[in-house]
Amino acid sequence: MQYVGIHTQISRNNRLSVLLLLMFPLILLATVWAFLALVNYFGHGYYNEYGEFVNQLDITQVNYYFVQAIPWVVGGVGLWFAIAYFNNTSMIKRATGAQTLQRRDNPRVYNIVENLCMTCGMEMPKINIIHDDMLNAFASGIDDKSYTVTVTTGLLDTLDDDELAGVIGHELTHIRNRDTRLLIVSIIFVGIISTIMSLTINMIRALSYSSGSYRRSSDEKGGNVSIIVIMLIAFVCSIIAYFFTSLTRFAISRRREYMADAGGAELCGNPLALASALRKISGRPGLAQVNRDDIAQLYIAHPQALNGGNILSSLFATHPDIEKRIEILEQF
């Protein structure tokens, strides 16, 4: 396997970043339009000559409300995205319990990172450590000020220097290729859709409980039922949006892992060491106290990807099969 040139990969990821920034808002706006159209269709109509109610879609009215909603949707999503984008490093650090590592804290790790950075001519990223027996490492950040390589104590205790250099080389390649920036963009937008789904589910549950209360009048119950129907429509629309945004994320996630493996092997000069490290990591991947899929997408090996599964689960995996990665490295 030959590693694609660093400038080629950076240019490709920059183009993908721009594409994602355009695609996700378009998917979200299309979802809003579909929601308004469905509500309009099921809420309007007429009775035909047989006394049957016929639903009818008023496109003009749908487009009117859609135009009115665009500034609120764009403004809300834009604000949400800006906060998450520029605070992603601190949010990840808090979520994982990571601590900043200085040279005096662990000269071994610091020296390995420093030597690899000197080899490829990149600026030294921050180094974080998580006190966890699991074997894990990941890169994060959106620019030179926030780029970070995080490792666990379990990884440091288990891997030898060559294996650790291979893993850190893998993570540094993610940073060099701007993979971390691209992934943060996709995680934020998928997270927005996921949050909307959760909110609609909670509202449906609350309204269902309220409608079932015997103390409510029939009018109040009828109003709640109408709102529940609207929330169900919103939920269905958000599921469709989540599906399409996730497909985009999956399309870019697996390829970047292969590229990072190749770049890491080239950087450390020992593909077999990285293959050996991945084999050890596959026995205890992830973080014991962190059960968040958005964070797990950053890991060098996604825990769920190692549990097997059917063809469908493999299709929607964010990481390629680790045995396949090891096989390719051993043929490097």
- Count of helical stretches: 12
Radius of gyration from the CA trace?
A: 24 Å
Mean pLDDT: 80
C-alpha termini separation: 6 Å
**Major β-sheet, in short?**
4 strands, mixed
Low-confidence stretches: 216-224, 307-313
Task: Give the helices and strands as they follow along the chain.
Answer: HEEHHEHEEEHHHHHHHH
The helical percent reads 55-70%
Helix/strand-derived class? Answer: alpha+beta
Estimate what percentage of residues fall within beta strands. 5-15%
Total number of strands: 6
Shape: elongated
Give the spatial strand order of the biggest sheet.
Answer: 3-4-6-5
Keywords:
single chain; 6 strands; 332 residues; 12 helices; two-stranded antiparallel ribbon; alpha+beta; 4-stranded mixed β-sheet; 7% strand
